[in-house]
């Protein structure tokens, strides 16, 4: 059944910029876009017509890096940080990721779904139509699978596309303290084979307080052997060249990247690995080292922006706020910021043919905004001008 949105300004994201079309029309059939362009070139109307009264239609937003499913929260640890404790102090004292692990292990699958729903609804209310969700707080085979099942279940509870990522190598569970290689053996030999049917990609935390590049490479190789896509948390707190490692393995994305070097960026450019920038974590952790955005531009690396929603370092559920932070903190332009939550976020998920632009053949995922100029989406702080969200033409 044909649907048609008329009397709109379009930001199609086709090409290299916002792909703006004044007096535009989007036509969809069976949830797929069949036409997006000037009204003058649109095929004759055949179905339902929605008058957008001059509003802006953009692709539905894509949050390509989240830890949305998790037990509990860490407001208490944040309060401690405000009194002087560091993230590392708290992690070494058994808090941090491990405290969320305990809460996640204690929760049932249904409890994880229920606690994630309000966060998911906040993103949906801002026009998000696709979200990546990582495991990584279970840290046992059973609990990691529970997280991945909860992530998938969210896709049955709401009209949203979910891309589950297995992040078993996120932190060392206490039962493996002092033997991180043995934990990586478990990840590689048991968890990845078990998680493969439930996840589309595998991620790891390549960091001094996470896992070494050599350990991450073992995880990446195991993922590739199972036909899963790979990505990596890299260069968040220190420079270990995890991003170059990920690129050499054809990773979809390397994420965080504050400490990435020119060589890392060059390797990412060669491989087509997307740089996923996470200004919420940078802000919340009061980091000062900026990601090398100029080098990314120079080498032609695509940049995406995401919330990194997680209880420890980025408790935000606003992708609109990330647009503003990407611009104010990292110096992204309006075009870069908006492409970062649409077309480039789709590429970071390996879904570039499916979502992220308004082009024929793509899913009809739309965000209809009550703004005149797309720059307003990046400019405002804590204001949501969403008029309507359409997922698969509905
Ligand atoms: N980097 C992060 O910022 C989060 N995970 C990661 O690998 C932090 C996760 C947490 O503190 O719970
Ligand atoms: Fe993360």
Give your account of this protein's structure.
This protein has 394 residues and is of the alpha/beta class. It contains 15 helices and 15 strands. The strands form 2 sheets. An 8-stranded parallel sheet has the order 6-7-8-9-10-11-12-13. Strands 1, 2, 3, 4, 5, 14 and 15 form a 7-stranded mixed sheet that branches. Helix 5 links the parallel strand 7 and strand 8. The protein is globular, with a radius of gyration of 21 Å. The model has no long low-confidence stretch (mean pLDDT 97). 3-[(4S)-2,5-dioxoimidazolidin-4-yl]propanoic acid (DI6) binds at residues 96-97, 100, 170, 205, 233, 236, 281, 308, 310-313.
Record the SSE blueprint.
Blueprint: E1 2-11, E2 20-29, E3 32-38, E4 48-51, E5 56-59, E6 61-63, H1 75-82, H2 87-92, H3 97-106, H4 109-124, E7 128-134, H5 141-157, E8 161-169, H6 180-195, E9 201-206, H7 213-225, E10 229-234, H8 242-248, E11 253-256, H9 262-271, E12 274-277, H10 279-284, H11 293-299, E13 303-305, H12 319-328, H13 334-340, H14 343-348, E14 366-369, H15 375-379, E15 386-390
Helix pairs in contact: 4-5, 5-6, 6-7, 8-9, 12-13
The protein binds 3-[(4S)-2,5-dioxoimidazolidin-4-yl]propanoic acid (DI6) and fe (iii) ion.
